[in-house]
Design goal:
By secondary structure, the protein is α/β, with parallel strands linked by helices. The chain contains 10 helices and 6 strands, in the order αααααβββαβαβααβα.
C-alpha cells in the first residue's frame, strides 16, 4: 500500500495539479451565472444596444481578464458615447400638424403641412466648441436638401432654441458664420424661444441679437411663421409690381 501511494504521488500527482483550480473555477462560474439577470439583459438589448455592449464588455472583461480591465473598458466606452453626443447635437426638422398649431419632428409625424420657402429646425442640446461645426454643416445640409426636394429656394430659416440649455463663444461664432453664409443667398434667420442664459450671451457678450435684429426673435414658432408669411407676401407683391412696371 505504501509503495502504491509513493508511486501515485511521484508519477500521477502532476496530472492532478490543476484540479484545485478547476474546482475553484467551477464554484466561481456557478455562482456568477446565478447572479446574471437574463431578463434584464434582454430588456437592455431591446431598449439600448450600446448600453448592452458596455454591459457585455464589463462582464467579459471582469470574467476573463481582470476587474480593473473590465471596468476600465466599460467606463471608456461610456465616455466615448458621451463625447459623441456632445460632438453631434440633435437637430430635427419640424412641420405643422394638420389642423393644429403644433410643430413636431417630421420623422415622428411624417405628414405635416408644408410652408413653402420656410425651413424650421429644432436644436435640442447645448452648442459648444465640440459640436458647433457639426451644427453649421447640418443646417446648411438641411437647406440644400429642402431646396432640392421642393425645387424652390429657402427664404427663411426658423431655429427653435428652446432645447439649447447652454452656448459658448464658439457656438455664438458659429451663428455669426451661419449668418454670413446665408445672407448672400437671401435667407433670413429667425430665432424662437431662446433660453435666458443663451439670449443673454447672444445680446451682451456678442451682440448677435443686434446684428440679427430684435424683430427676428420670437416667443413661439407660429408667431415666427406668421412673420415669415407676411414678409413673403410683401416680397411677392413687390415682384408683381415690378413685373407690371416692366410690361
Amino acid at each position: 500500500m505504501a509503495l502504491c501511494m509513493m508511486l501515485t504521488l511521484l508519477f500521477l500527482a502532476p496530472l492532478f495539479s490543476y484540479t484545485p483550480l478547476v474546482a475553484l473555477s467551477a464554484i466561481i462560474m456557478s455562482a456568477m451565472f446565478g447572479l446574471i439577470d437574463y431578463e434584464k439583459m434582454y430588456h437592455m438589448f431591446k431598449v439600448d444596444k450600446y448600453d448592452f455592449i458596455i454591459c457585455m464588455v464589463a462582464f467579459f472583461g471582469v470574467a476573463f481578464i481582470s476587474m480593473d480591465v473590465g471596468l476600465g473598458l466599460s467606463v471608456g466606452l461610456a465616455i466615448i458615447r458621451s463625447m459623441l453626443y456632445a460632438a453631434r447635437p440633435e437637430i430635427s426638422k419640424l412641420g405643422k400638424l394638420p389642423g393644429t398649431e403644433l410643430y413636431r419632428d417630421i420623422k415622428q409625424y411624417p405628414t405635416p403641412d408644408a410652408s413653402p420657402g420656410i425651413l424650421i429646425l429644432e436644436l435640442g442640446s447645448p452648442i459648444c466648441f465640440s459640436g458647433s461645426a457639426y451644427v453649421r454643416e447640418r443646417i446648411t445640409r438641411w437647406i440644400r436638401d429642402e431646396e432640392s426636394i421642393k425645387d424652390s429656394p429657402v427664404e427663411h430659416l426658423v431655429l427653435d432654441l428652446g432645447g439649447v440649455t447652454g452656448i459658448d463663444m464658439t457656438g455664438i461664432e458659429m451663428f455669426f458664420e451661419l449668418k454670413r453664409i446665408l445672407e448672400p443667398k437671401g435667407i433670413k434667420i429667425l430665432l424662437v424661444n431662446p433660453r435666458i442664459q443663451v439670449a443673454e450671451k447672444m445680446m451682451m457678450a456678442s451682440n448677435f441679437i443686434d446684428a440679427l435684429g430684435e424683430e427676428s426673435v420670437f416667443l413661439t414658432i407660429p408667431d415666427a411663421i406668421q412673420a415669415c408669411k407676411f414678409r413673403l407676401s410683401g416680397s411677392n407683391k413687390k415682384n408683381e409690381l415690378r413685373s407690371v412696371d416692366v410690361v
